[in-house]
Amino acid sequence: MAWRGWSQRGxxxxxxxxxxxxxxxxxxxxxxxxPPRLLGRRFNFVIQxxxxxxxxxxxxEPRRSDTGTSGKAHKRSALIPPxxxxxxxxxxxxxxxxxxxLFFTVGFTGCAFGSAAIWQYESLxxxxxSYFDGIKADWLDSIRPQxxxxxxxxxxxxxxxxxxxxxxxxxxxxxxxxxxxxxxxxSLNRTMTRYFTSNPASKVLCSPMLLSTFSHFSLIHxxxxxxxxWSFSSSIVNLLGQEQFMAVYLSAGVISNFVSYVxxxxxxxxxxxxxxxxxxxxxxxxxxxxxxxxxxxxIFLPILTFTAGNALKAIIAMDTAGLILGWxxxxxxxHLGGALFGIWYVTYGHELIWKNREPLVKIWHEIxxxxxxxxxxSK
Length: 379
What we know:
Elements: E1 3-4, E2 19-20, H1 26-33, H2 41-51, H3 99-143, H4 151-161, H5 164-183, H6 189-195, H7 207-211, H8 219-240, H9 242-267, H10 277-290, E3 295-298, E4 301-307, H11 308-325, H12 332-352, H13 358-369
Antiparallel strand pairs: 1-2, 3-4
C-alpha cells in the first residue's frame, strides 16, 4: 500500500504519521496502532481531538469608537480621523471617569483666568516702557538708511494694519494649521488620535480636552472655524480685552469638552471629538448676547441677513435637536456647552470672575516690587 506524506503542522494524526491514499482514514489508523487496553472512551476522545482540525481561538475584540450601546456600527463623520484600528476601553464605572476631567476643568479654568490677570498687569506695566522704546526706534529709523523692498518691513506693515483682535487670533490660527499638518503625517496618527481627540473611553482624558481645541482633521472644518473666529475676533477682543479673551477661549475649549464627556457617558455613545467649534461657539454666543441687534450674513448668501440674537437662537435649537436625535456629523453637546458658557460669562461670569481679580494682582504686585531687604538685622 502506498503512503502519501502530510504536513507536520498538526493537520494529520501527529507529526510523523501519514494518511493512506485510498484506504483507512485518520480514526482507523489510530485504532489499529493503539494498544487494546488503552482504547478506552476517554483515550479515544483525546486521540480524535488531536487528529481533527484545530479550532481557532475566539478573539475578544475591544469596543470600537464607532460602536454604540447596541453594538451596531455607526457611519463615521468625515470631520474626524479614521480610527477603526484604535481601540477604546470604556470603564465599567463610567461616572468615575468624569472625576479627573471635572477637577482638570476647574483647575485649568482658574489657572487660565489667574494667568490672564497677571498677563494684563505685566502688559500695563510695560506699556510706558514700550512707548519710550517706540520713540527711540522711530528716531533710529529716521537716521538709518532705508532698504527698499525689505520683506521684514512689509510683514511689519501688514501686522500693524491688523486690529487687536486679529493680531490676537493669529497665533491661534497658526497653532490650528500646525496641528492640521501633523495629521497628514501617517507615523503620527496614533499619537494624534490619543492626545488630540477627546474621548471619555480613552486612556488619556485630561490633556486632550485642551489639545483637541486646536485639532482639525478636515480642511473644510478648520477653514470654517478659523473664518468664524477671524470674523468675530475684533468684536470679542474689544468686548473683553486681549488677556480676558484668551482666558475665556481656552477655558471654553476645556469646558465644552467636559460637557461632551458628560453626554457621551450618559448616552453611551463613545467616540472621538476634535475641533475648535466649542470654543468658537463661546465667542459667537458672547458677541451675539452683548449685541443681539447686530446684523449677520452667511458667506455664501451675503444678501440674506439676520440679527445676531436670532442666529444664536437658531444655532442653539439646531444643536439641541442634534443632541436629542443623535446626529453624528458634529459634537452637538460640545457646541451647546460652549454656547451656554459664552452666554453665562458675559451675563454673570465677568462680574463674578474677572472683576474679582484684584487680590491676585495685589499679591503678584508685592512679589514683583518687594526686593530682598538690606541689612538683614532685626530692630
